[in-house]
Each structure stands twice: as structure tokens, then as C-alpha cells.
């Protein structure tokens, strides 16, 4: 599997960054998490004057063979119907990204539908959905490689148009099942702690989902590495997102991670290239029950906790103004010296 050379940002500017933040006109540390965010963005961009240019959100969409086992509260055709909704401008992510001035692209990574051309649609279909992981591998090795490479190519294109910050969203009926299986394997947490209600299955639906995912785990009991895991149970949107996240970090972009599924892709990316952690910002803690433990596993400090469980990159769009505030305060706030305010001794 292709991997990317992601440099650890140098620590050369760390003292100057800390000094700049600490001497703003505020009690020491009083801007809380906004300060660590500003520091991280300065480190990523290796500057004391960071900028966010052409913020972008990419929604990767795909269908899952496992959906036919009844692991979701909604039917599989909702995946393509929601893609049409994204293209028509009517989904939550359309509303929030427009509100924040964020460019939105929708990627057909493997939806079971033939879309025509549309200004915001990127055609990257690997297949009309994955194989049913209960009975076969979700994807072939070649499909895995193609998905990773395509994700990277999409990000290179977005970066070449001037973007230095990119949010990763997704849409795919059944994809909380794939994400739970990924989480269980990488975090070594029993599957019952990783399975949540997704789009809203009831108690019986949750039990059925758990039973099926246990059977999937038995079917794919021996997985050599992350590539084998993705081949066995991954989704095309999740896999393409991994290639995209790795490429974004390799290009020195700010990587915005959304909810449960987006973080499962990040888990794989971090397993492949641990240095991606320096570039990633975790936008929110989803209401999906496993997300908290997933975030704890990677020691992430999410910006928002709003009981969202939508996906689509909505958490990225909602968190974006906080990133803008962190960049603005470090660039625009007066220092004790420039404003003539007395500092503590
Ligand atoms: O982002 C999240 O944390 C999140 C949590 C629960 C559900 N979702 C969305 O719901 C869909 C998957 O749910 P399900 O029940 O079909 O597995 C998929 O389109 C996701 O974008 C997203
Ligand atoms: C309607 C609907 C919208 C979504 N957006 C992301 N996942 C979704 C799942 C459903 C069911």
C-alpha cells in the first residue's frame, strides 16, 4: 500500500510561538484550547503568522455490501439519494459550509448509482459498493490501492487550487459498522464497546448489528495489517479518506477530522504514518457511543461536543470558526508591550 512521507514539524519556532501567545493581552493561558490550536497551526505552517486559505470540505460517499444484512436504520438507497441532495445544495453540510465560506466537494468513491456530471461532484467510483464482509472481502487489493491513490490525487488537486486546510466528511449507509470493526481491531477493544446506534437502530436493531459484526470478525479472524483489515471490512469512502488524509498531512495542510467514521479512517492513517497526528484537529465528539473511546485511544482533545451524529463533515464546518478565531487572535491581538498594559511580575 502506498504510504506518504509525513515530516514531524520542527520545534525551532516553539519558543517564539509560546512567547507570542503568552504575551497577548490576557491572563496567561486564558484563551484555553484556542491557544493550543493556534500553536498547532503555527507549527504545521512553521510560522508566527498563520493563515487559513480556501478552506475545503470533502465528503466521500460509498455503499456497503454489509448494508443488506440490515445493520442500519435506513435503506441503502439513502446513500445515493443523499449524494443527490448534496449536489442540490439541500443537506446540512451544504448549509454549514456555505455559512462559513468553505468550499464543498462530493466524491463518489463507490456509490451504487450512476451520477451525471455536476459542478461539485468528483467521479472516483471504485465499484458500485463494497462486497458483503459477512461472506467475502469488502474489496480487492487493487481496489484498496486505487482508493488510497485516488484520495491522495483529490487532495493534491484541492491543494493546488490554494487550499491549506481540509475537512474530511463521509456518507454511506452501513458505514458505522465498518468503522466499529476498524476501531475494534486497531484499538483492541471488544466489538460490543465499539458498536453504536449509527443512524438510529433500536435495541433489537443494535443487538442484531452486534451479532452480525461478531460474525464478520469470526470470518476475518486473522488480519495481518491495516491493509488486510481494510480489504476485509473497509469501505471505499473510508479507504479513500485515508489516502486523502495522509496526502494532506504530507503537503503540510491542516487536517480536520469529523465524527466516528472519519476518525476510524484517521485511526488507520495514524497506524500507517504516526506523524499525521501533528497535522490533525479533532472537530467534535460524536454522539455515536464508541467515539469517545476512539478519541481517547489517540489522545485527541475534540473541539466541540454537541451530540452530533450526522457525519457529512458537519462537525468540521461547525468547528471551523474556532480555528479562524485561533489564527486571528495570534495575528491581530495586541501584546502587553504594544498596548501598554501591565503584565504580572
Ligand atoms: O459522524 C458520525 O459520528 C456519525 C454517527 C452516526 C451516523 N453517521 C452517518 O450515518 C450513516 C451511517 O450510519 P449507519 O447506521 O447506516 O451505519 C453515514 O452516512 C454516516 O455519515 C455519522
Ligand atoms: C437522511 C440521512 C442523512 C445522512 N447524512 C449522513 N448520513 C446520513 C444518513 C441518513 C439516513
From TrEMBL:
Domain of life from the UniProt record: Bacteria
Record bears the keyword Glycosyltransferase: yes
Annotated InterPro entries: Nict_dMeBzImd_PRibTrfase, Nict_dMeBzImd_PRibTrfase_bact, Nict_dMeBzImd_PRibTrfase_N, Nict_dMeBzImd_PRibTrfase_sf
Associated pathway: Nucleoside biosynthesis; alpha-ribazole biosynthesis; alpha-ribazole from 5,6-dimethylbenzimidazole: step 1/2
Active site, UniProt feature: 312
Class in the EC hierarchy, top level: transferase
Presence of keyword Glycosyltransferase: yes
Catalytic activity entry: 5,6-dimethylbenzimidazole + nicotinate beta-D-ribonucleotide = alpha-ribazole 5'-phosphate + nicotinate + H(+)
GO terms for MF: nicotinate-nucleotide-dimethylbenzimidazole phosphoribosyltransferase activity
Alphabetized Pfam families for the sequence: DBI_PRT (PF02277)
Function in brief: Catalyzes the synthesis of alpha-ribazole-5'-phosphate from nicotinate mononucleotide (NAMN) and 5,6-dimethylbenzimidazole (DMB).
Stored HAMAP family: CobT
Similarity-based family: Belongs to the CobT family.
PANTHER family on file: NICOTINATE-NUCLEOTIDE--DIMETHYLBENZIMIDAZOLE PHOSPHORIBOSYLTRANSFERASE (PTHR43463:SF1)
Name used for this protein in its record: Nicotinate-nucleotide--dimethylbenzimidazole phosphoribosyltransferase
Origin species: Reichenbachiella carrageenanivorans
Encoding gene per record: cobT
Amino acid at each position: 500500500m502506498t504510504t506518504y512521507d509525513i515530516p514531524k514539524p520542527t520545534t525551532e519556532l516553539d519558543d517564539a510561538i509560546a512567547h507570542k501567545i503568552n504575551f497577548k493581552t490576557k491572563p496567561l493561558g486564558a484563551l484555553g484550547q484556542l491557544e493550543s490550536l493556534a500553536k498547532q497551526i503555527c507549527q504545521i505552517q512553521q510560522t508566527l503568522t498563520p493563515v487559513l486559505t480556501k478552506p475545503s470540505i470533502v465528503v466521500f460517499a460509498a455503499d456497503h455490501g454489509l448494508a443488506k444484512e440490515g445493520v442500519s436504520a435506513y435503506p441503502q438507497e439513502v446513500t445515493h439519494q443523499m449524494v443527490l441532495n448534496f449536489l442540490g445544495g439541500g443537506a446540512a453540510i451544504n448549509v454549514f459550509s456555505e455559512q462559513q465560506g468553505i468550499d464543498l466537494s462530493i466524491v463518489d468513491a463507490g456509490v451504487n448509482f450512476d451520477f451525471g456530471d455536476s459542478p461539485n461532484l468528483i467521479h472516483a467510483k471504485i465499484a458500485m459498493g463494497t462486497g458483503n464482509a459477512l461472506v467475502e472481502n469488502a474489496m480487492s487489493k487493487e481496489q484498496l490501492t486505487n482508493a488510497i491513490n485516488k484520495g491522495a490525487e483529490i487532495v493534491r488537486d484541492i491543494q493546488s487550487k490554494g487550499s491549506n486546510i481540509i475537512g474530511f466528511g463521509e456518507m454511506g449507509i452501513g458505514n458505522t459498522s465498518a468503522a466499529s470493526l476498524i476501531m475494534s481491531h486497531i484499538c483492541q477493544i471488544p466489538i460490543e464497546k465499539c458498536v453504536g446506534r449509527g443512524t438510529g437502530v433500536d435495541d433489537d436493531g443494535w443487538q442484531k448489528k452486534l451479532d452480525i459484526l461478531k460474525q464478520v470478525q469470526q470470518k476475518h479472524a486473522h488480519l495481518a495489517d491495516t491493509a488486510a483489515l481494510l480489504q476485509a471490512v473497509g469501505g471505499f469512502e473510508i479507504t479513500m479518506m485515508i489516502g486523502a488524509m495522509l496526502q494532506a498531512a504530507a503537503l503540510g495542510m491542516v487536517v480536520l477530522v469529523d465524527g466516528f467514521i472519519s476518525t476510524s479512517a484517521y485511526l488507520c492513517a495514524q497506524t500507517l504514518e504516526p506523524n499525521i497526528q501533528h497535522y490533525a484537529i479533532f472537530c467534535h465528539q460524536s454522539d455515536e457511543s464508541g467515539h469517545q473511546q476512539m478519541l481517547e485511544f489517540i489522545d485527541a482533545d475534540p473541539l466541540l461536543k454537541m451530540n452530533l451524529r450526522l457525519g457529512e463533515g458537519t462537525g468540521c464546518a461547525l468547528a471551523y470558526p474556532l480555528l479562524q478565531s485561533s489564527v486571528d487572535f495570534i495575528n491581530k491581538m495586541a501584546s502587553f508591550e504594544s498596548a501598554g498594559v501591565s503584565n504580572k511580575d
